Amino acid sequence: MPDEWDVDPYGASPAAPPGASREATHDGSRSGGPDGGPGRILVIGGTTLARRVCASLAESGHPVDHLAAPDDRDLRRALATRPTGVAVLVGDDLAALRHALAVRHLSDTVRIVVTVFDRTVAQQLGSLLRHCVTVSPADLLAPTLAGLCVDPDALAVRPDAHGAVAVHRRAGRLVETPWRASAATRRRAVLGRLRGQLQPHDTDARLLLIGLLGIVTVLTLDWLWLVCALHTQAGTAFLEAARVVAGVGPAAAHPGHPGYEVASGVAMLVTVGFTALLTAGIVDRLIGPRLVGVLGPRVLPRAGHVIVVGLGQVGLRLCQTLRELGVPVVGVEREPSAPHLRLARSMGIPVVLAHGEDRAVLARLGLPRARALAAVGSHELDNVAVAVAAHGVAPDVRVVLRAGEDEAIAETRSLLPLGLTRDITRTSAAYVAAQLTARGADGVPRRVVAAADRDYVDLPGHGLVGRPVPAGDDCGHRDALTAPDRR
Hints:
Elements: E1 3-6, E2 41-44, H1 48-59, E3 64-67, H2 72-79, E4 85-88, H3 93-106, E5 111-115, H4 119-128, E6 132-135, H5 137-150, E7 154-160, E8 163-170, E9 173-178, H6 183-196, H7 203-229, H8 234-246, H9 258-287, E10 306-309, H10 313-324, E11 329-333, H11 341-346, E12 351-353, H12 359-364, E13 372-375, H13 380-393, E14 398-403, H14 408-415, E15 420-423, H15 424-437, E16 447-450, E17 455-459, E18 463-467
Helix pairs in contact: 1-15, 5-10, 5-15, 7-8, 7-9
């Protein structure tokens, strides 16, 4: 039976009177101040996410302290007010680790919510620090972006232990049901993978394949000539054909068959060229990153696939989620030194080094036959350029865009229907704010689903609860976001 939840706005907490505070209890849950009002929360970080979380908390009535890059003295002063929660929302995992450890050193009871991408760092924080919740914005939004790519009617699709689960909005309610692609879609994806075999995209693989197929062709034709026309034994014929391919000539002369001798000489000369191509392809693949395969799972799919442009944190997690759903995927990254290329290769994800806004590149990747294109790079204006190019190559293909930090993307959407856009920063802010304001262990959020106009946080015992979008994204803590003078 599908699970259903009422879609109700997330109730904002009443504003606290001046001076009211709320202290952390030893079990990690939070209680209100003396009058039951909301407690003070400390936000650390100068990122857009930090500003949005600060603005959301202030709008719901929570007093907030906001520090961009505090040192130990700043943290000690801020924690002296006994905040009920601390949000570490910086853009670097090592900086997040340092701030989280410093906060726990100064207070062993306050609840910490910290954004971390690297799963190893997240696991270490969870095991070392009590009452510490790690949040990855990429992991939060990956099911939503994957749902938009594979099912236009779904708010999100996520892998499950028993398959996959999709969240749909039906008659004012959110319904969670098992998800499986249609038989036609699965068949198209399988055929697309098969078509990708022995169809290299990059130059080195193409050279390697041409050289290898050329040598094999010469060997086969020479062997067939010897066996069928000259009635040579199969083993002897293979030895003579191999000598021709190696460039040392036939093992013995064949009087009365001048045509074969001429053909053998021509074959030896042609094989020299094929050998050069094969050698060049092997050298390039040994030296290069080898991000796309010629055979096997890392070949480029030719139909029924999803093209993910931008292999940052969000793009890599989206590719991984799509692969877990059984959807063929190909990544596009323009920076050869991008840090996540190694992870993509280890996951078996084919990656093309190119500019995603290049229409020729999108055409070669089979965009007209693709299921969707997701432009999820960290530079949102580049995502707009990719969406425009995609509409020029294949106007009917579904386009999914990542947004959240650049105001210009909203203006562009008002001028051109670029595609399905999700605000990763807004959704992450809703989840982090819900973590900081949760009351007790039963109210700790489990995940979040992003819609175009609202985010839904999954709360135990309540289901997916809608959170209204804050009226403003600027928290107004300009002084806190400026490095203090420590002369």
